[in-house]
Write a structure and sequence with these properties.
The complex is a heterodimer of chains A (about 270) and B (about 220).
Chain A lengths: L1 H40 L2 E5 L5 H7 L3 E7 L1 H8 L5 H10 L2 E7 L5 H12 L4 E5 L2 H53 L4 H4 L1 H33 L2 H5 L7 H25 L6
Antiparallel strand pairs in A: 1-3, 1-4, 2-3
Helix pairs in contact in A: 1-6, 1-8, 1-10, 6-10, 8-10
Chain B lengths: L2 E12 L4 E12 L3 E5 L6 H8 L7 E6 L2 E2 L5 H8 L2 E4 L11 H5 L1 H6 L3 H14 L15 H13 L5 E5 L7 H18 L2 E5 L12 E6 L2 E5 L1
Parallel strand pairs in B: 3-8, 3-9, 6-7, 7-8
Antiparallel strand pairs in B: 1-2, 1-4, 4-5, 9-10
Helix pairs in contact in B: 6-7
Classes of the chains: A alpha+beta (about 270), B alpha/beta (about 220).
């Protein structure tokens, strides 16, 4: 019972850190797609006196990546109902040119303002509408959720680290006598700390497998049945084999640092 | 005969040299000698022993053990030196989660001997200290005298050049004490091991010729 408790007291905080790392990875991947979606869906409206090309606008601001002319005939068709062809032509002639302009990245409202300023410097540009207010609120909400999650992950990591240090203190107490006796009789560091390393590495592997197991379950069983569109759409991104490597390396790094701290603090032959 | 231990103007202190325990001590101990170091409580007997196995560096002077100057020795050399020493403590310092047999062969384990050699040696040594039937027990299951015999067996397991013993019979009754003295006398006589014992009282029944040092007022003096 004591053996199991001893291991769980180390494995659980380690798992909490690994879960934090995995949550971060998954969130970055899924919100990456969301961010891409926001970027692709967003476009600003540019009104010009004369027709312009993509290169012209790109020269004014490098963030501009696409340009799509809005058919003027569609705009005037409603207004010119009942008018003869000549009248329609006159209206069309006096109408400026409208463009849907796409950007290369998801920018904040300040950057949108900069783009608007750059475009309006050109005399051909009559008006730029960035739809900043609706764009800004979704962007701010997105950043806020991201920040909250990162704070939570860091907080969870710090608390778990303290729990691991606490457990290390118990290990130090448990293994101190053996390590000191071995040191008195001339055992090198690796030999006297060998048992600790074995325990810690086994625990690190366990914690990694259990964390990976949870995410595999989420990916293969929970996600398809969840009915949540964004989860179903991003099912593949919930866990990848490369994540297993990242988690294992992180777990091993944490336990090696922890064990070394115990070994070095238990040094010094005492009477 | 060659010196196994040589101290020259040796000063030992704690608190980064502020608290001197031994000052300007000079002595030599030769191979195969049996030496008692006595002195009042707190005089520095255990401190001297600690310095002899490299747990405390000399503050001044030199202390050469087995040809190694402990004032200027790297940790790796110190570890190697300790593998040629047998150390016995008043509180036994056995590893409680190991069996008696495993405790006995600790020095062999550190030296990298095979499990077969370790097992054979464990049987031989435990027979020597009359604890064969306790091989698979844990130290906590033994009496104080038996635990100290395990400690002596461990100290002898690798035929050490020198045995350092700190109050080895301090916690034992007369019978157990005599057994321990016999074992150490035998080691000295038969294996020509240098034995250095820190004790508050020299045993009355002791058959070997021995040298006696006393620690007093920070000095180490030989009693003739």
């Amino acid at each position: 019972m004591k053996f199991i408790k001893n291991h769980l007291m180390f494995i659980l905080p380690l798992m909490a850190i690994l879960l934090g790392i995995e949550f971060y990875l998954v969130f970055e991947r899924t919100t990456g797609t969301y961010e891409q979606g926001l970027k692709e869906d967003y476009s600003m409206l540019v009104v010009t006196q004369k027709p312009v090309k993509l290169e012209t606008l790109k020269a004014l601001n490098s963030h501009i990546s696409t340009i799509r002319p809005i058919k003027r005939e569609q705009i005037v068709s409603k207004v010119t109902k009942g008018l003869d062809k000549k009248g329609s032509k006159e209206i069309l002639k006096s109408l400026p040119y409208f463009y849907d302009v796409g950007l290369d990245a998801y920018l904040d409202t300040k950057a949108l303002g900069e783009i608007k300023k750059d475009l309006e410097k050109d005399k051909r540009v009559k008006k730029v509408e960035t739809f900043r207010s609706s764009y800004g609120s979704s962007y701010r909400l997105f950043r806020f959720v991201k920040l909250i999650l990162n704070i939570f992950i860091v907080f969870m990591g710090v608390v778990s680290l303290f729990l691991i240090i606490k457990q290390m203190e118990i290990w130090k107490y448990e293994h101190r006598q053996r390590m000191q006796v071995m040191e008195i009789f001339g055992a090198p560091l690796m030999l006297r700390s060998g048992v600790l390393f074995k325990i810690a590495i086994v625990d690190a592997i366990f914690a990694t497998l259990m964390t990976a197991g949870l995410f595999f379950y989420a990916k293969l069983i929970w996600a398809p049945q969840s009915g949540i569109n964004i989860i179903v759409a991003n099912q593949e991104k919930l866990f990848r084999m490369t994540d297993m490597g990242i988690l294992l390396v992180a777990a091993l790094l944490i336990v090696i640092i922890a064990v070394y701290s115990v070994v070095f603090s238990a040094r010094g032959v005492e009477e | 005969m060659s010196n196994v231990i040589h101290a020259s103007n040796l000063t030992l202190a704690y608190d980064e040299g502020r608290k001197e325990i031994i000052k300007n001590a000079n002595f030599n101990i030769k191979k195969g000698e049996f030496v008692f170091i006595t002195g009042p409580s707190g005089s520095g007997k255990s401190t001297l022993l600690k310095a002899l196995y490299g747990a405390l560096k000399p503050t001044e002077g030199s202390l050469v053990v087995g040809g190694l100057d402990l004032a200027n020795t790297r940790q790796s050399k110190l570890q190697e030196l300790r593998t040629h020493m047998g150390i016995i403590f008043q509180d036994y310092k056995l590893v409680n989660e190991w069996t008696v047999a495993k405790n006995v062969v600790l020095p062999l384990m550190i030296a990298g001997y095979s499990t077969d050699v370790q097992n054979t040696q464990a049987q031989r040594l435990l027979k020597h200290v009359k604890l064969s039937e306790h091989a698979d027990k844990y130290p906590i299951e033994l009496s104080g005298g038996e635990q100290q015999r395990v400690g002596v067996a461990r100290a002898l397991s690798k035929n050490p050049v020198v045995i350092l013993a700190d109050e080895p019979t301090g916690n034992l009754d007369d019978y157990s004490s005599n057994v321990i003295w016999d074992l150490m006398e035998n080691a000295c006589q038969q294996l020509e091991t240098t034995v250095l014992v820190v004790t508050h009282k020299i045993p009355t029944i002791f058959s070997l010729p021995y040298r006696h040092f006393i620690i007093e007022s920070k000095g180490v003096y030989e009693v003739h």
